[in-house]
Write a structure and sequence with these properties.
CATH topology of the domain at 24-282 and 300-313: MetI-like fold
Number of helices: 36
CATH superfamily of the domain at 24-282 and 300-313: MetI-like
Structural class: alpha/beta
Number of strands: 20
GO cellular component, one term: ATP-binding cassette (ABC) transporter complex
InterPro entries: ABC_Gly_betaine_transp_sub-bd, MetI-like, MetI-like_sf
Pfam families: BPD_transp_1, OpuAC
Strand order of the largest sheet: 3-10-4
Radius of gyration: 36 Å
Family: In the N-terminal section; belongs to the binding-protein-dependent transport system permease family. Belongs to the binding-protein-dependent transport system permease family.
GO molecular function: amine transmembrane transporter activity; carnitine transmembrane transporter activity
Largest sheet: 3 strands, antiparallel
């Protein structure tokens, strides 16, 4: 039979919908999250005991005193589990989903009951909705709306819709036809027949459908925890994936309490709203005679007063407590309450580093929100911008499939550990199995199975598709997908019983410290080379959060630090991860300041504080960038810098005459050689901070056939016979005359002197219009990042060797400013740092160079202490 894969069509349809109906998904997302946030703001905003009292009053009103007491005890129990916020989030999800479901389901059921054609069309749709595995609904939800509240609500609405429609249709159809005929015979309109006859009589059945909608919604929002939906589902999912028995039991009990409360209250509500229900309740009460007080229920007005009073008290207490949260203060309050969304895969190093960063970010004034997800949903969430960053990307192998799919929508924030290794391992008491090749023919010893981890993990894909095949183990072994914690539990059980077992592991991992294991050698290299662990953020994260991005890029852990942190968390027990991190940090004083150095903060005064410093610069990008950088640094160190712009000639003259103290942009030994030769006896060469540089002519990449200076010969008409230059005083302009002569271009081309900014403007205009242009450029320069330019080769070496960029100063500079001299002598910048600083100043705009340099310096914490250390 030919293969048939309708799933491929579905994926294509999803891609098309994402591309063309993004506005619709944004609208749905806004409606669903808005409804949830509104309900959750009410349920989660008050004191737990007072809200438990409100729930108890509602139970007292609907079912009596005993029900009220039991409800209060149940919700108090949830609070003692420290799961109140999660329970209210779950209840908010259920109510939000139930409201939308009922609004859709009841009218649809009525329509189906009144028209057979509608009923026939709706029935197969409901069959599919009711029998489709619940997990499947999460997939399109995650694809369209990323992880979080919306996919959970959407899946819940779809999953819980069928009973609402079916029970409404059934209730309407079960109304006695003679009653309907009688109503019509008396001239009742179809509308009034529905509202005054059919609907009241069908209400008990409809309410039973509502009850089922709510119960199915509760079961689905728990499952939706897999897709990042908040609440008890998230806790249950964490308990399952990490084998947290205690948390699983507590979360399960909380779900049961919510389920029983919702079931009993919706059932009792039927007796309140249905005429038949009220009649049956009154009859049952009358039959109790003198014992009727047992079934006493307060009137609606009394119950409403009780709810209002408790709600007002709860609201008042919440208002009084607002603003009482402790905030990071002083220089450590970098985040100023900004929220950051973090995701993690439940792998040990992911758990350890995620809770480490959560603690550090809280100490720095941020509000990190940490969510556990599987690898697939996590990378989807990063690509869609719902999650800001995660710390456990294994590249270039384990998570390569996700990077291939979403790499253009994410950005690497630096590797913090590596290289790692993937492997299969067995207990050391298993004899004769030292390598993967030794597993061949011994499948019965291990019951034909290899205990794996999460099916979404890249290691599992490599194991199934490559490792087993390369070693001829297919068919003999079955890879059992589970979770990291389940794999470790199976390993522990097997070791306790001295049974053979093969597990999927990796290094580093604390299991090698806890158990005596043998890493199976991989002579064929099927698992590939070792990887590195990366921090990965959504696209634009570094731009939006430059300080945090710089912390992540400079973050590193040694194997000893990582394994000790993992051991601390393992020993602390489940649910105590952040407490374990705090204890670990106490044993590593100074680690937080090294990991997340605060920008600004307490200003360290230099030895020369109070001295006035005259700084000069000419308007070249690297000069502007470094001059304003040092102006900010010197002000922080207590100096009084004064900055003045000059052309190179006047600037070197001012330095030689002692009117200027220093400048940061001397290109030597070529570009500024004329000034150095003239004034070197009256100047100080403080030292080189960047190099080598290069001078060049450049053309846009779309200009074909021009790749070197020789190719310009005979093509002056293409470029209008001109070369766009910079300031006429620049040494490069002088050298350019020699270059043109060497290549026989001096009579064919005219060099147009202008300025650096004018040259860039000409390049900008030409590139936008796709016109040929030859420009005088140099490296390093941000122009190569912004425009598609190619440097013309210089086979004759007419430009000479590359320069180094030096700091030059007046003759007595070292004597007058010994501390500053030492800082500048050790000053160095990488091409990446210089380029990002220039780009920051460019984006800041004219007149804001100092402020832009300040922002760049603040986004590189630790840079100031590195460039200008104060002892």
């Amino acid at each position: 039979m030919p293969e048939f894969h309708p799933g491929n069509w579905v994926e294509d349809a999803v891609d098309w919908l994402q591309t063309h109906l993004g506005w619709l998904f944004d609208f749905i997302n806004t409606v669903l999250t808005g409804l949830y946030d509104g309900i959750n703001a009410v349920l989660g905003g008050g004191e737990p005991l007072l809200l438990a009292g409100i729930f108890a009053v509602i139970a007292f009103w609907l079912r009596g005193l005993a029900a009220g007491v039991i409800a209060f005890v149940g919700f108090v129990l949830i609070d003692t589990f420290q799961l109140w916020d999660e329970a209210m989030q779950t209840l908010s999800l259920v109510l939000a989903a139930a409201v939308i479901t009922i609004v859709i389901a009841v009218p649809t059921g009525i329509w189906a009951a009144r028209k057979k054609s509608v009923s026939a069309a709706v029935r197969p749709v409901l069959d599919v909705m009711q029998t489709m595995p619940a997990f499947v609904y999460l997939i399109p939800g995650v694809m369209f709306f990323s992880v979080g509240t919306t996919p959970g609500l959407l899946a819940t609405i779809i999953f819980s819709m069928p009973p609402g429609v079916r029970m409404t249709e059934l209730g309407i159809r079960q109304v006695d036809g003679e009653l309907v005929e009688a109503a019509e015979a008396f001239g009742t309109t179809p509308k009034h027949t529905l509202t005054r006859v059919q609907f009241p009589l069908a209400l008990p059945t409809i309410m039973a459908g509502v009850n089922q909608v709510i119960m199915l919604a509760l079961s689905m929002v728990v499952i939706a925890g897999m897709a990042g939906a908040p609440g008890l589902g998230e806790r249950v999912y964490a308990a399952v994936t990490q084998v947290q028995i205690g948390l699983g039991v507590e979360s399960g009990v909380a779900v049961v309490i919510l389920a029983m409360y919702l079931d009993r209250m919706t059932g009792a509500l039927n007796l309140r709203v249905s005429p038949l229900g009220r009649r049956a309740a009154a009859k049952a009460t009358a039959m109790m005679g003198r014992m009727r007080f047992v079934r006493y229920k307060p009137g609606s007005a009394v119950a409403l007063c009780g709810v209002v009073v408790l709600a007002l008290v709860a609201g008042g207490m919440n208002f009084a407590d607002s603003g009482s949260e402790e905030q990071a203060s002083g220089s450590t309050n970098v985040g100023k309450g900004k929220q950051l969304n973090m995701g993690y895969i439940p792998w040990d190093e992911g758990i350890a580093t995620s809770y480490l960063w959560k603690e550090v970010l809280e100490q720095r004034g941020f509000k990190p929100n940490l969510k556990q997800l599987d690898a697939g949903p996590l990378y989807t969430s990063l690509a869609q911008g719902e999650t800001d960053f995660q710390t456990d990307a294994w590249l270039p192998t384990t998570h390569q499939q996700y990077w291939d799919k979403y790499g253009s929508k994410m950005e690497k924030l630096g590797d913090w550990y590596g290289p790692t290794s993937l492997e299969l391992s067995v207990p050391s008491y298993v004899k004769g199995v030292k390598s993967l090749a030794d597993l061949k023919g011994q499948g019965k010893k291990f019951n034909g199975k290899i205990i794996g981890i999460e099916s979404s993990a890249g290691e599992m894909k490599i194991l199934k598709e490559k490792v087993l095949k390369d070693y001829g183990l297919e068919g003999e072994y079955k890879v059992v997908s589970s979770s990291t914690s389940s794999m470790l539990s199976e390993l522990k059980r097997s070791i306790q019983k001295k049974e053979p077992v093969v597990v999927t592991l990796w290094s580093p991992h604390w299991a090698y410290n806890a158990y005596d294991l043998t890493k199976l050698k991989d002579p064929k290299g099927a698992f590939g080379k070792g990887e590195k662990l990366y921090n990965v953020g959504r696209k634009g994260f570094a731009k939006d959060n430059p300080i945090v991005a710089s912390w992540l890029k400079n973050f590193h852990l040694t194997e000893k630090q990582l394994t000790s942190l993992e051991d601390k968390i393992q020993g602390a027990g489940k649910g105590q991860e952040q407490k374990a991190v705090k204890d670990w940090l106490k044993g590593h004083p100074g680690f937080v300041d090294k990991m997340a150095p605060t920008p600004g903060g307490e200003k360290k005064q230099g030895k020369g504080a109070g001295k006035a410093v005259q700084m000069g610069y000419f308007p070249w990008d690297e000069a502007i960038a470094t001059t304003y950088l040092w102006q900010n640094i010197l002000e922080d160190r207590g100096y009084k810098p004064n900055v003045k712009q000059l052309d190179p000639g006047p600037l070197y003259t001012a330095l030689a005459q002692g009117e200027m103290d220093f400048q940061t942009d001397a290109w030597l030994p070529t570009t500024h050689e004329q000034y150095w030769r003239k004034y070197k006896d009256r100047l100080t060469d403080v030292g080189s901070w960047y190099g080598p540089t290069s001078l060049e002519l450049s053309v846009p990449e779309y200009v074909k056939g021009v790749d070197s200076l020789e190719d310009l010969k005979g093509k002056s008409d293409m470029f209008g016979g001109k070369i766009t230059g910079i300031e006429s005083s620049a040494g490069e302009m002088k050298i350019l005359k020699k270059v043109l002569k060497d290549y026989g271009l001096d009579k064919e081309y005219k060099v147009v002197s202008s300025s650096t900014s004018s040259m860039i403007s000409e390049v900008d205009r030409s590139v936008k219009q796709k016109k040929p242009v030859v420009a005088t450029t140099w490296s390093p320069h941000w122009v190569y990042s912004k425009y598609p330019l190619k440097k013309l080769k210089d086979p004759k070496g007419s430009w000479g060797k590359g320069d180094h960029i030096h700091v030059t100063a007046k003759k007595d500079f070292k004597k007058d400013f010994p501390e500053l001299y030492g800082w500048l002598k050790d000053f160095h910048m990488s091409e990446d740092d210089l380029g990002s600083l220039e780009a920051s100043i460019q984006s800041g705009g004219k007149g804001k160079e100092k402020e832009s340099a300040r922002k760049w310096l603040d986004s590189h914490p630790g840079m100031e202490d590195k460039l200008a250390p104060v002892k």
